[in-house]
Fold this protein.
Amino acid sequence: MKLFLKGLKCETAKCQIERRQRSLAPGMHGWRKGRLSEYGMRLREKQKIKRYYGVYEQQFMRFFHEASRLPGNTGENLLQLLERRLDNVIYKLNFAASRKAARQLITHGHVHVNDHKVDVNDYILKLGDKITLKNADKSLKRVKQQLESNPNFTTQGWLQLDRDKPAATVVALPTRTDIQIPVEDHLVVEFCSR
C-alpha cells in the first residue's frame, strides 16, 4: 500500500510500489502469499501507522498510553496526537516536501512555535499555537521555494496558513475525517492493549 513517504516521488513511475517486481514479497517463496492471521492483521495496521508518521516503537507506545488516558475513543485520540506532531504539521502545511525533510527543518532550528525555537520533532501542538519560521534568509528562502513549487496546495481545515509570511495557526483540533491515512484504528487499539 502506498503511504507516500517519499513526497512527490511516490506519484511518478519511480515509485517502488508501482514496479512489477515489487508486487511480490521478498525471497524465493514470495509468490506463496497466505492469509494473514488475526495477529498479523493487527500488527500490519500498527506498523502502517508507525511508518506513515515515522515514529519508533517506544514513541508509538508513549503516544498510545497518552491517548488511552484521554476521554473518548482511544484510536481517534491516538491518530489525533500523531497528527498534531510538529513534523507532521510542517509537512501538512507544505513547508517541507516530506516528513523527513520536515524533521530536518525542525532539528536545524528553523521552526518557532509561539515565538520560541522548537527543535523537537514530536512536539505536540495545541489549539491556538502559532508556527513561524526563524527570521533568516536561509529559512525563509527554503520554505517559500517549497510553497511556490506547489501553488495549488490547500491546507486542511484545522490549520490556517498565511503564505506571505509564511506562518500558520492551529485553529481547531483534527478530527477523524481530517486524518487521511487509510487505517483501521480499532485494530491498533486491540493490538496495543493486550
